[in-house]
Amino acid sequence: MRDHPLGATATGMSPLCWHADVVIVGGAVAGASTAHALAALGVSCVLLERTVDFPELNRGDVIQPLSLGLLRKWGVLPRIEAMGGYPVVASGYFHRQHGFLGEWGFADLDTAHPHQTVLRHTNLHRALYAAFADRASLVTVRRGAQVSTLLLDGPGDVVRGVGGTIDGKPFRATGRVVVAADGAGSRLRRFAGIEVDQAHDYVHEYLMPMCPRPDVPELEHRTMRYVGAEGLTMIIPLDGGAEVRVPFQIPVAEEAYWKSLTPGQLWQRMVARAPVLDGAPGPVTGGVHTYRIHLRHAQRYVEGRICLVGDAAHVVPPTVAQGMNMAMLDADVLAAVIRRSLHEDDVEHGLGLYDQLRRPVNAAVLAASHEQTLAQAATGPAVDEHVLRDHAWLADPQRCREVAERVAGLRNPTAEQLGILDSQGETLP
């Protein structure tokens, strides 16, 4: 076995060694979800995450109904509920002059969880890791692991694992499959030679301030979306509804200007865009961060024994909160494919099924999210002029149900619905 460097390496010390069926590089939502999905099928893994602490990130707060079902299956959902996950049943659309335009919701959907659940991204991380206590025999977690090498074997340079350092000591983690959950800039994806299509360049991004939640019925287990000439402003309840995150659209070229505003100046501009905030009991809280948006898709998800999940495979605009949920369904399907491939002892050929099953589904989600982004993030006087016409669809129950089903993920098949079978012809447990 030989090392292929991905970055700086440590030498001169005997390495720590871990072995499992699967090695997962990247322990955020995509990687941690993959570990849970594998463990639920009896497949062991080593989960390697470079950060020691759980970072506070202004992203990935909304868990969709389909993902709630997966988290329940993996035993994570009770941890999320205990951390204050806040159920959201509908999303309302508003205009600063015309007021309420209408809403769509999840109440009529045929699902065990007819709602979204909103939880700070860092607390979702904590819930996923707390649930590993019930999977200790199958999941080896190593935080603070800096991956710097791939471990290759045989004349065909078959990937057998990764190496690096943890607490200044070298390590080697080996397995039969390596999962790249190392984000949009994935080094494993680049090593595998998988190209990424940049499908669209957006000219806007989102500023992500927070503030106390206004005490209004429109935000009682609901999100709000203000549309208008200046673009989209979203209001998302957090922390059991005590606070709200307020992502609002700004031109990419104006980031420095918006960040230079005092809290009072920023507050005035937020209220001008979303008048409901005028009733909030306080000004902006926490730091003000920006969220750049992209639409990217890897040209394939599998190369040899390397499989991509989450942002390593696809990056989607946050307009309808799909990215994190796509990653969870990646994990669900990939785990079943890996379990089947290991059971049939056909890893080299068996992993290709994951690409066949997930990439077309994700392509459709990316396309729908892009369409919604262009519609909701439109700017200019024409948006105000035609806002009533353009949102008349909110009065059509069938159209609202279609939107709710797509956002909920109910049109994206799980591993169970896909009927992935083992060599005995039995559905995977």
UniProtKB/TrEMBL annotation:
Keywords recorded for this protein, A-Z: Monooxygenase, Oxidoreductase
Annotated ranges, domain FAD-binding: 20-368
GO molecular function: FAD binding; monooxygenase activity
InterPro entries the UniProt entry points to: FAD-bd, FAD-dep_Monooxygenase_BioMet, FAD/NAD-bd_sf
Protein name: FAD-dependent monooxygenase
Organism: Solihabitans fulvus
